[in-house]
Amino acid sequence: MQEEIKKKQALLEELKRKRFLAEQKFSTKEEQEKVKELIEKWRGACQEVIVELHNNALQNTPDITIPQLLEFLHIEPQSVNYSVTEERFV
Questions:
Q1: How far apart are CA 9 and CA 5, in angstroms?
Q2: How far is CA 68 from the centre of its chain?
Q3: CA distances from 37 to 25, 31, 44, 57, 78 (A)
Q4: pTM of the model as a whole
Q5: Measured CA distances, 33 to 37, 40, 55, 63, 84 (Å)
Q6: How distant, in Å, are the alpha carbons of 5, 50, 52, 53, 56 from that of 60?
Q7: Integer Cα distance of 66 and 50 in angstroms
Q8: How far apart are CA 88 and CA 81, in angstroms?
Q9: 6 — pLDDT class (breaks 50, 70, 90)
Q10: 19 pLDDT band (50/70/90 cuts)?
């Protein structure tokens, strides 16, 4: 158990370090805005692909839902702005 905690703490520290480096890399307001725009563009493209995949999957598995598809693809719904409670992209 202690070893698992140490591994998680090390992972957390590594993520904090990477976040800090990323923030330094995109330090100007203009650069940060550009990154935000690119993230939104990426999410939009992902959402379109997910809808297309879902439509194609419905042909073989008529009762598959988007949350099930996301789980199958190991995609966290919030990472593509999908609301599981509202059953739609937000």
A1: 6
A2: 15
A3: 16, 10, 11, 30, 17
A4: 0.65
A5: 6, 11, 33, 40, 28
A6: 43, 16, 13, 11, 8
A7: 8
A8: 9
A9: confident
A10: confident
